[in-house]
Structure formats: structure tokens, C-alpha cells
Amino acid sequence: MENKIESIGKNGQKIEITEAEKEKREKIKKVNDEFKKINAEKSKIINEQEIWKYFFEKPKKNYNKYMYEMLEFPEYLMYNNKSVDKYREKWNEFFRNDNDIYLEIGCGSGNFTVGNAEKFKDRNYIALELRFKRLVLGARKSKKRNLHNILFVRKRGETILDFLGVNEISGVYINFPDPWEGEERKRVITESLFSKLDIVLKTDGKLFFKTDHEQYYKDVLELVDKLDNYKIIYHTSDLHNSEKASENIETEFEQMFLSKHNMNIKYIEIKKIK
Question: Which of 33, 162, 178, 238 is catalytic?
């Protein structure tokens, strides 16, 4: 049996631990101290460059570490609202081509949009997300694959009129949005969204929707049926056992969901007809 030595615990109390445990604790402390030092240095840079002003009302001592990493991907990631909004009606200039532009609202860590950008090199993709880590992960994947037809933007879906012009996009993807049970008015897909799409989405452009939520699926079918400018051209309550299965690109949530739950994925394609 190993001899125990006296040490000081987290709360300052005296405890007895083995030499091996002491060594393990010292290694962990060293790693944590180094992380704090690096994070402090990065936070200093964020304050000096006033990056904080894009997200907070005043500077802080410590920031999410991915805020700093966003600076490493200027060609793949935009977080400054003014920079994004100035490209309204000029996104083809940003991408340096006249290819169709597609939008994803709530892209997560970017698996879906990166997959699309790889598959369809003759299309441009703008992916919206709010969380710093997810934006950085999406940008990393894009850079690793040397993609030039994709951009991650820190924007909310309801702001699309601020940065998209008339008939500027050819399609919109909305994958697994929050169903807001009991607070359905907060959903992404509402009549208000279609009013915005009336402006920014080209005629014959499409909205693609995936969900694991049965009622959300039914509610969207019912909503679109009441709209004059839109028509449902395809829907299925079991995407992975449909004729669309072979062309489906899975999101991170979809992969996780399918591995843990035995529930069908619902899918709808909606076309703007005028």
C-alpha cells in the first residue's frame, strides 16, 4: 500500500494523498495555469483590437477562446455586422463569380454546408450561426478542404433583409430548428420568414426543411398550403427511407440523433412560384 502524504485541497483544507495522486494533480494544475496564461494573452489582443465591441457593451477580462480564433479565418468567416451588410446585393462580387447563392440558417458546426459546398462547386453558400465555436469549426473545415464558395456569418436568421438584396439567393436550408413547443411564435419558419423570402428569394427558388419534430413538420405543411407565392413540391415523413435518401447530406445533429434514437427524419421542399 502506497504511503500517503499531507497536501492542501481545493478549499484550503489539509488532505492525505499518494505521491502518484500528487504528481497527477500537479500536472493538471500546470496545464490549467498554461491555459489561463494563453487565454489571458488572447483576451488582451481582443481588447487591444476592440473586437469585443462587436459582441459586448464593454470589454471583459476573459472571453470565449473561439472569439480569438475567428481572426484566423478572414476569408471564411465574418462577424462584423457592418462588413456583412455592405455586401447586400453584392454577394456575387464577394464570391467573384455569378453562381447561384444558397443560404443556411442555423448551420451548427458546418457539416451540412461544407458538404454542399464540396458537392456543388458551381454554387456559393452563406451559413448563419451565432456560437463562436461552431463558426470556427465550420471555417476550419472549409479551409482544410480549400473551399472558395462558402462563408460563415455571425447573424440571426431574422436579419436576412439587412444583408441580402432583392432576388439575391436561389435557395434556403433550415435544418432541425428549435420547435419551440408551447412558444411556436418563436419558430424560424413562420409567415414572417416567407414575407422576407418574398424579397430575397428568386422565383423558382426553394426552401429545404428537415426536422425530427412531427408537429413542426405538419405545421409547416399547413402554413405553406395557405401561402399564395409558395408551393410544396416534395415532402416525406421518412427521409432516410425515401428516394431522396441517396442525395441527403447529414448535419451533425442528424448523425447524433440517428445513432441514439429510432425516429424518422421529416423533410419538405418548398418552391417560390411567383
Answer: 178
Gap between the Cα atoms of 31 and 27, Å rounded: 6
104 is in an annotated binding site: yes
Give the mean pLDDT of 245-272: 90
178 catalytic residue (yes or no): yes
Phi then psi dihedrals of residue 210, to 5 deg = -125, 140
Beta bridge partners of 271: 206, 231
Provide the pLDDT confidence category of residue 35 given band limits of 50, 70 and 90: low
| Residue 30: predicted pLDDT | 76
Q: What is the pLDDT of residue 243?
A: 97
Nearest CA to 188 out of 198, 176, 199 is that of: 176
Domains of the chain by start residue, with CATH: 74-272 (3.40.50.150)
Handedness of CA 27, 29, 35, 40 (dihedral sign): negative
- Whether 34 shows a pLDDT value over 60: the answer reads yes
Cell numbers 419558419 correspond to what residue?
A: 189
pLDDT digits (tens, 9 = 90+) for 108-134: 999 999 999 999 999 999 999 999 999
Cell of 45: 489582443
Q: Is 254 annotated as a binding residue?
A: yes
Give whole-number Cα distances, 56 to 39, 46, 52, 174, 263, in Å: 18, 12, 6, 28, 40
**Grid cell of 66 as nine digits:** 473561439
Residue identified by cell 498554461 is 34
User: C-alpha cell of 6?
Assistant: 499531507
Residue of higher predicted confidence among 36 and 43: 43
85 labeled binding residue: no
118 has binding-site annotation: no
Among residues 145, 131, 215, which one has the least CA distance to residue 180?
Answer: 215
